[in-house]
Amino acid sequence: MNISYQNIAHFAKTKLLVGVVAALGLVSCTADPNSPGVEYMPDMYRATGYEAYLKKYDIDSTDFFERNLKKLGYDQAGDSVKGAIESEVAALYNVFKSGLITRKPVEGTIAEGKIPFPIEKGDRSKAKAIKMPIPYTETSLVEGKAYYEIFCVHCHGPKGQGKGSLIQKELFLKPPAYSAGDTKNLSAGEIYYTIFYGKGMMGSHASQIVEEKRWKIVQYVQTLQGNKVEDLRDAKVNSSVELEAVDAELPDSTQAK
Ligand code: HEC
Hints:
There is one protein chain. The protein is about 45% helix and about 0% strand. It has helices spanning about 5-25, 65-70, 80-95, 140-150, 155, 165-170, 180-185, 190-195, 210-225, 230-235, 240-250. The chain is an all-alpha fold. The radius of gyration is 35 Å and the shape is elongated. The chain has eleven helices and no strands. The protein starts with a helix and ends in an 8-residue tail after the last helix. The site of heme C has 21 residues, from helix 5, helix 8 and helix 9.
């Protein structure tokens, strides 16, 4: 075998590499059984993401004021704007002082695609003015019936006569039949109001049923009132009453001048 200088160098390099790897293997272990030892790129194993609503830091100990005053140019600012900068930072402080990782939504925030019910509890008379926002279709009525049979049938009964299973067992006060008396004339908006806020012994169902489903249930209840689907589609039901009610509710500023 021809022992050349290159061969020796190559052999030495390989030996050195093996030695280094072996030594690394030895020192990267620790005596603590819970410790993973030395890790190659630990960021890959453990994400730096925070858990929502975790109380992560205490802003009182993070020179919050100094940092943010500096950021807003307090040092360079003229005396006239210093006060404004101070109060801006104070306001920021109030927002962040809980130290939560994820901020709570600003009060009054509306989630995308959601329209808040514009009537306050107790303002029932205004509910007449609220129109059915979704079209009456076969699907919406079938779905409305299905939701009705989940959320309402045990009190109101399958035909809306107020003879649900709870009533038959005398476990609850009998609701009025949808097709009788004043209940027959309730408009879509009023039925929606009742689902949203409840009435008397009937509790609010707003937290259990999302907006779109509530309106589908309203459609089905309207058929139980004895309305024909065609009439509902053409909005013949209660339309004259609704228009009068809307006019009466409008504040002066919106009246045509
Ligand atoms: C636990 C029993 C119960 C459940 C469940 C229930 N209701 Fe009622 N509901 C009642 C009672 C009792 C009344 C009568 C309340 C009153 O007039 O004081 C009533 C009244 C009503 C009225 C008439 C309101 C009015 O203004 O006169 C409507 C409409 C109505 N319910 C719809 C529904 C719908 C829709 C559901 C399902 C999402 C539902 N209810 C679920 C017990 C219930």
